[in-house]
Specification:
The complex is a heterotrimer of chains A (385), B (275) and C (450). By secondary structure, chain B is mostly helical. Helix content of chain B is 68%, strand content 0%. The chains are: A alpha+beta (385), B mainly alpha (275), C alpha+beta (450).
Chain lengths: 385, 275, 450
Amino acid sequence: MSAPPKTIHLAIAGAALLAVAGAGAFWYAARQGAGAQSAADRLVTVNATSCEPNAITLPGGRRSFEIVNASDRPIEWEILDGVMVVAERENIAPGFRSTLEVQLAPGEYAITCGLLSNPRGTLTVTQSDEAAAAASEVTLRKFLGPLSEYRVYLVMQGDAAVKAAGALRDAIAAGDLDAARQAWRQARLPYRRIEPLAYRFSDLKERIDARAAYLQGREQDPGFTGYHRIEYGLFAEGSTQGLAPFADGLLADLTELAARLKQAPLDPGLLIEMPADSALQIVQGQLPQGENLYAGNDLQDLGASLEGIGKLAGLLRQVAAQVDPALDAAIGQDLQAAEARLAEIEAQGHRTYGDVPPAARDALAAELTQFSQDLRKLQPAIGMN
Amino acid sequence: MVGQYLKTTALALTLGVWGSGMMAAEPSLDLVGPLAEYKLYVAQNTAKLVEDVTAFTDAVKAGDLEKARSLFAPTRTSYEKIEPIAELFSDLDVSIDARADDYEQAEQDPAFTGFHRIEYGLWEQGSTDGLAEYADRLLADVKDLDARINGLTFPPEVVVGGAAVLMEEVAATKISGEEDRYSRTDLWDFDANFEGAQKIYELLRPLIAGDRADFVAKVDGNFAAVDEVLAKYHSADGGFVSYEELTDADRNALSAKVNTLAEDLSTLRGQLGLG
Amino acid sequence: MRDPAPLSTTRRRLLGRIGLGALGGTVAAGLGIPPLPARAQPDLPRTGPQVVEAPAGHAETAAGHVPFYGRHQAGILTPRPASGILAAFDVVLASLDDFERMLRRLTERAAFLTQGGAVPARDPGLPPADSGLLGPVVAPDDLTITLGFGASLFDRHDWLAGLKPAHLQRMVQFPNDALDPALCHGDLSLQFCANLPDTCIHALRDMLKNLSEFLVLRWMIEGSVPPVPPAPDGSTPSARNFLGFRDGSANPDANDAALMQRVVWTHGPDEPDWARGGSYQAVRVIRNLVERWDRTPLREQEQIFGRTKMTGAPLDAPEAGEYAVPDYAADPEGVATPLDAHIRLANPRRPDSERNLMLRRPFNYSRGVLRNGQLDQGLLFIAYQADLEAGFIAVQERLNGEPLEEYIKPVGGGYFFAPPGIAAGDYLGSSLVDAARRNRTAQPESIKRE
């Protein structure tokens, strides 16, 4: 018998290759389906009762996560340091994915997994050069000035909020609708300026800034108090009648808030966190939906919010200027762009916020998003570990 | 390198009066409260300064010599209390508070402006003539100062070191009666500098009282002693009598206390990690 | 046990002998009789040093002398001895001839004092020719006397018209100055430097006595430089000022002739010919607020200066020596050496700031107490440069507003021009006088031409 022709070897080899390629393609497709390909450091798939993976180990530094909601309920995903939320993504719809970027210092963390009843996972962050380098040369000393300056701002705006609420209460007591409406518009502004910190006092916030949409009984709910309850009376019902108790309540709550703000402990981490968070919250909440539903003067409120965020940004820029001049300049430009955009929208002369076209809102949202992103870069630049 | 210095200093200090536990290597967040309080205090004073200077310059421009003279010293007190912050703006400090001997041509020098130029007119020349432009300039300057101070993030070491700086002010110019040489109202200024220093010290006292009882007791005692001496020189209307009335013995007593306070208060920065 | 009484008697006699001996010596000198040689006195047992004895003199330094004649005046590149005086005068001159006479006599006295010699005898019925401070034989003691002309000398005398050095001007106050007119300016300056203060004082008194017809003393400051024993390797560190810092670490090398020609000796095309080889002398009396300085944290002192205090090393190389050059290019944000540190402002070490070098030759002064009970002491700053505007004035303008200003207060001084050096047989300032005479004779000719 003679040796088989070379072509047979080739054919066998070829078939084997094909088989391997086929297997590879199948493997590749399977992983794609599971969404395993990700630009993020870790991909986390949240199922109905568990998370995949449930124990993650990563080196410290700036890390990113991609969270895929493979369950049929909207979920949120959080990294927890004890009871403190380090980072979170809310409202991820079923079938959708969301990315989260966070500066992680070495340590042990917990991760939530969809429903609160689901078991939590663990996140272990190890030492790394990147984490060590991120502990910048910025010392606490550089923050003392900005921190105390912010406290002065809190005191002064807190006092202004109380004073303005007093003027509002007086106008209501006098039964003067026009004066009360004007006083109402002015009264919210100091509160908006210091909202980045004020909203964290959840008990007071619920009374001062309650919104009908989140209450079962809506506008009739006994929990509907504060600024918006008075707004409803003055602008939707068009009368000062029956508003006196709410005005008194608001004044008392703001007085309590001012006292708490005076004593609120401030630290560099908090100062850095506040403006970026607040800018993003505006993008996600007030911009698309509006907040002053009855008075419609959201643009005015947004102006005050921007002032408050701008104050924080300015203080942080003082620290950042020597460490990262490019970032300092970028933040300055972002704020200017957002302010300019808001001024532009105001110049359009809309009677009420409801009239502001989506395109304009989106444009401002884009500016604020950029602002928030650059503000987030402050943590690695000047944050203290 | 810094660590080395701290070690050497600490070593040297343990051999002396100070224990090595006196020094803080780093400032703490506890300083945020006092720093904020101090800014509020200064902002109140600059607002009052604008108010008072308005009344003072109105009197000068109205030609009311009596009234202008009576307002001169009380108006200055808000400025003298906040000296460590005011002098951060050296252009305004010179324009508002320079003395004649800072200028080669003394009182005749055209660059000589501010409180003391007006003082020269009111007392030495005994008239409000020709002072209108200096009055306008002074008012514009203090308004500018108020705005600049409100916009300033106070450097922590300037605040903490401010108590000692105020004592240096007193030691250099108020003790010798060189500050208000025409009106002889130096004791008003002395008292204001002193009160300003006390304010800073009191805001910081809770941060050091715990570990440094001896130091605190000593400084408290010296402040009280100065208070006591100055109290002897109050005038009927709650102000102060002329510097001329200060006896040599009292001047020496004050000088010794002021210098000791300057020595002690100059350690505050190091104690609070801002050295 | 010895009876103490005879010893004390011996001591008294010894004291008495010494007193008489000293007096006798002076009297003898006045008579032209050499003093009794020590051997002629009875041998008394020395019990030990006495309170009134003069401190032991240093034979080598007493005899040391600095050449008076040369291309440039002495006392500019000469290393500083321990004592100095800067005296400023107003001149009383009726004519150019007076000016020449004054300069000749000044030169004569300066040449004698700086080279030393026996004091001439005079009839005792007359006031002595010499104050006698240095004894019958004036030891040179490394004395230098440097002459300077003030702007007002030229401005007030029309026979010097057109001859003022290009940048010579009356000192104008800088923002932090509190100039005392009694301590400023002058038609003429004399800088005396020697190992002992007495040598300087002796020289000043000699000048005043011999030139009383022409010179009126306006102000003077006595200064000192602390002597420092040399290091084991033979090098001597810079002396300290009254703020406790080493002063002069970054001075240009006085032994580099080409550098000195560029930095110190006037050579510009805009300068009058007679001035070439001279140098601008900037004098500043700078009071130091020492009590306040001593209450300032050490770290802050060093940040204000830009150097470590004890060694004088720059802040970016604290382990190096005081002569290490700071590397500002590697520290653009001023993290190691603050951007407003004194040495960094004075010399930012950029290519363009090379123009602004000057040779600093300061002394410390201590004059007493002020009305507020604080010490009146500080720096007698003296600097030499080829161009006053590019040198001291440019540097001071960079320094305006520096943090150090909290602790210093310039109260006096002036700008002068030190004329070039002379050969033996010539007199100081002769090149100026010759130029003035030429101008005078030139004038009639130009009129003739018209």
